[in-house]
Amino acid sequence: NLAPGLRATDVALRTISEALTKAACLTLGLEAQELQAEYRPALTRAGRDGLEAEIYIYDTLPGGAGFVRRVADLGISVFESALKILESCPDKCDRSCYRCLRSYKNKFEHDLLDRYVGASLLRFLIHGTYPNLDPARLAASTELLFQDLRRQNFEEVTIERNRPFTLAGFGTVIAPIYVTRADNSEFIICIQGPLTPGVPPDDALRNLKESCPSIVLLSDEMVVRRNLPKATSRLISRIIG
């Protein structure tokens, strides 16, 4: 979902825009400031629905220097190079840094650069893989949320991590965060990707949510990372009622 106006949309498209121009400049031997990219919803009905977007690259020199035509000739390889930039930060940064995406020219967009979100979308575009976040990033965000929930010290509420959960007809699934109340009510909490709202991160949890939507509670990974108290309070209102 790349609906216009959503922060996740801006993060994903701004990140990919920066990765594409960096990949193109490295491949063509250009200075970083010689190419720029912007994005917008596609000027179609699907664009209004968040199903199509456009990223366009342009020369920054007055009158143009023809570099963008050379970028077009690179074809799919420029997307593959951009994905490598996003997945292979030398410093293994949390979202972005000067070793991968940040530069002086994009200093006003640093907060919108998130290589994990951008990579999940690029992998989907190139390889058709489901746009999940990197497993290590997903696990770290889940642990962050788990620890914050534990700090609330709920009375008569038990919170566990990576607990097997068995339900008739579904077999056993691993609950990333498992919550039980004194009245034996059960909840499974998991992280949803910013680009896939309402969708759990794996097939087993997706199937469980389709059949038992009240059991599976989702928390947006971007909210967990950027506004943890908000993510936690939303879940508390669902758990405590």
Q: How is this structure best described in words?
A:
With 241 residues, the protein is of the alpha+beta class. Helix content is 43%, strand content 20%. It has helices spanning 7-28, 45-48, 67-74, 76-87, 115-127, 135-150, 203-211, 221-226, 228-240, and strands spanning 35-41, 53-59, 157-167, 171-181, 186-192, 216-220. Strands 3-4-5-6 form a four-stranded mixed sheet, sandwiched between helices. Strand 4 (171-181) and strand 5 (186-192) form a beta hairpin. Helix 1 crosses helix 4. The chain starts with 6 loop residues before the first helix and ends with a helix. The mean pLDDT is 92.
> What composes the largest sheet?
4 strands, mixed
Low-confidence stretches: none
Query: Which percent range fits the helix content?
Result: 40-55%
Q: What structural class do helix, strand and pairing data support? A: alpha+beta
Strand order of the largest sheet: 3-4-5-6
Name the helix and strand elements from N-terminus to C-terminus, one letter apiece. Answer: HEHEHHHHEEEHEHH
Q: Output the radius of gyration.
A: 21 Å
Query: Count the helices. How many?
Result: 9
**Terminal CA distance:** 29 Å
Tell me, briefly, the overall form: elongated
Overall pLDDT metric: 92
- Percent of residues in beta strands? 15-25%
Number of strands: 6
